[in-house]
Amino acid sequence: MDIPKDFADSTRLLMSDALYETLVGGLNDEPSVSLRLNPFKTDGRPVGQVTPVPWCDGAYWLESRPNFTFDPLLHAGCYYVQEAASMFLHHVLSRVIDRPVTALDLCAAPGGKSTTARGVLPQGSLLICNEPIRQRAQILSENIQKYGHPDVMVTNNYPRDFRKAGLLFDLIVADVPCSGEGMFRKDAGAIAEWSRQNVENCYRLQREIIEDIWPCLRPGGILVYSTCTFNEQENEDNIAWIRGLGANVLDIDISEEWNITGALKGEDSLYRFIPGRSRSEGLCMAVLRKSDDTVLAERRAKDSGKPAKTRPRTDVGAWINDSDHFTLCERGDTLSAIPTWWLAQYRAAEKSLHLLHAGITLGSVKGKDVVPHQSLALSTALNRSAFAQAEVGYGQAIAYLRKEAITLDAATPRGIVLITYHGIPLGFAKNLGNRANNLYPQEWRIKSTHLPEQIPTILNI
Known about the structure:
Blueprint: H1 5-15, H2 17-27, E1 33-37, E2 45-46, E3 51-52, E4 59-62, H3 72-75, E5 79-81, H4 88-96, E6 102-105, H5 112-120, E7 126-130, H6 134-147, E8 152-155, H7 159-165, E9 169-175, H8 188-193, H9 196-213, E10 217-227, H10 233-244, E11 247-249, E12 271-273, E13 283-290, E14 309-310, H11 314-317, E15 326-331, E16 334-339, H12 343-352, E17 355-358, E18 360-366, E19 369-372, H13 374-377, E20 388-391, H14 394-401, E21 415-421, E22 424-431, E23 436-438, E24 459-460
Parallel strand pairs: 6-7, 6-9, 7-8, 9-10, 20-21
Antiparallel strand pairs: 1-4, 1-5, 2-24, 3-4, 8-17, 10-13, 11-13, 12-13, 14-15, 15-16, 16-18, 18-19, 21-22, 22-23
Helix pairs in contact: 1-2, 4-5, 7-9, 7-12, 9-10
């Protein structure tokens, strides 16, 4: 690996010779492969010789990288392929969050930390997942819908927009844009783009992001700050700067066996994952609690005064379990089921933010009919008994996920059918008898025409 000289000089100075040589050795090794199970969809386990990731329940390192793209269970949201260091968020939140919270994942795409957080947050918590870049926000929305938890919203906004909306949070996760040093091993582009000037630009941008969102964190609230870098400017220096806004750095208990490196400058607690020492890519994370005497944001989220258009349809309501806990709301021709307990936050977001997804998207209104949406098929609140079901084999499952035409068993009822694979919902089709109209989202489809010779078996379910 051709490491930039400026990076080598500054990192060796920060780490000392021995730790720097460990990093260089790690950067020349093959990256590890890890995944995290969706606890709301499966209690299975990866096949083969796997090693549990000790800081995250339900996460495993695999021996080698399988062809994830062609596993229907990935598309069904049964697991998420994620770098192990990023899963450390699970351990952090399990130590600092012990009651239901309103949480924001500020820079959330593609969704790994959001789904990690949603898996460990107490029941009764609302999570807003945000991404300011439109294309990345669409990918985030897709992954959140595949995960299937109803107590989530997805937005496409800049941090300052949340202050204007008057939304307040008990927890903010900020995995901020960074110079990408921790991804050198996996991304040659990160090496090519690295420069001292880029580090300077990033650490200034990171401060702008935190400064914009800081008024939206409640006094006593938790900020989890992270970067995929090693340098002190984007980590230790910024943590010290955030302390100056009115915060205390928290200590999180960890095991020595995890080989996590602490701060390399100053005395603040920081958790640094270094390839060659940790079985992961590079990451730094710190946890801060906002001082109780910090001045609140000027505005609080209020009901918009314009109620969401509700739709008291018992037929559509029957599509979800515990439907009396949801309010059916229309935005344009889209019908969604919003958990009633956070309806006020939904209305505030609908009024002031660019909302991409909320609760469960039930379907599109077509005259008197509602065509069910993929979000419903993958939701953990889906009432499967409301639909005819068609179990398909591997070849048909891949054809379905490519949005190709499929043919169902002759005994399959006509009309809307829930397509399942190994009993796990993949999505909807409209069975016409001689063929079935594939309702899988065009933008989610598998684009490759390749079909593996062997069926990839990644989970035992």
